[in-house]
Amino acid sequence: METKIFTPDQIDQAAAEINKGNLVSFPTETVYGLGADATNVAAVEKVYKAKGRPSDNPLIVHVADVETVEKYAMPLDEQTKKLIKAFWPGPLTIILKLQPNVLSKKVTGGLETAAFRNPDKQPTIDLIKAAGVPLVGPSANTSGKPSPTLAEHVYHDLHGKIAGILDAGATEFGVESTVIDMSTDTPAILRPGAVTREQIEAVIGTVDDSEKHVGKKDIPKAPGMKYTHYSPSADVQIVDEKQEWPQVIDWIKSQKTLVGILATDDVINSNNWPKNTELFSLGSDINSASHLLFAGLRKFDLNPEIKTILAQGFTADGLGEAYMNRLNKSAGQKHFEQV
Ligand code: TXA
Ligand code: MG
Question: Which of the ligands is closest to the CA of residue 229?
């Protein structure tokens, strides 16, 4: 299959593919999604196949308006309405109890809830409206690889397997949406993301941690969080904030193979790097670092000579909570240690 690239002025062509039951990748403010008609079971099955995604991992339903959510979900409570008012359109995915038999088990992974998201990206809102159906949309990467922040990343992973990619350039946040469970008595963040815990708590008060929440009976964790994720072929290690970079450099010197460094400009510019170093700048701060982390991991993954990737750690608050969550998964919790 030839994968077509659609520009934002070719929304109708992209929507026609969706209506035929085909897959079209769409841009969002977080990462690119892999879109299919959420009401077409055969189309949803193609999403799992193209990504190589385990079938018990449910999909986010992307909507253009709150009315569509009300069509599928049980009546929204006051807290949920507050979240929608504060953060939609935007990178907050809300898990809600469903009305019976309104969405296929293929979408929900057999759960009685579904994840809803109203992305803040005009071409994709236009696509959902033109198709006239909500779109399922997992991140448009091969399962296990870093999420795509450019149309080129999607093309790399999925060309030949999907009908098209709606290309609207780079995404803004670079880490995925925050997933909050509003289907239980106490709200809980199941996946930290682009909307921070602090921002959410300012609107609805204290929310549970995923671990504490999942400990309670009958409450599933975001099933996707149990799988390996964001993993390039090279060995990824986190360089903690307290780590001295000159020690890192001594270690690189002792290596015979290429080492990839993901770090901010101040780190890159204030050190002398050995010849066997490949540098990728994460920009100036946590905002740019979140935006660039997946792109950096992907860039290094294209070079089979790079056997180790050392990535700069940040404090895990604000956007740093999402950044460190993704980096920890990518590194399998491994931290650089001078030996
Ligand atoms: O930013 C994003 O959220 C991107 C863009 C494309 O919208 N999408 C995305 O989708 O990251 P995905 O499928 O890669 O991640 C969705 C996460 C998974 O961890 C999944 O297990 C969880 O949400 N999830 C979906 N439905 C759920 C449900 N009913 N209950 C609990 N977790 C759910
Ligand atoms: Mg994903």
Answer: 2
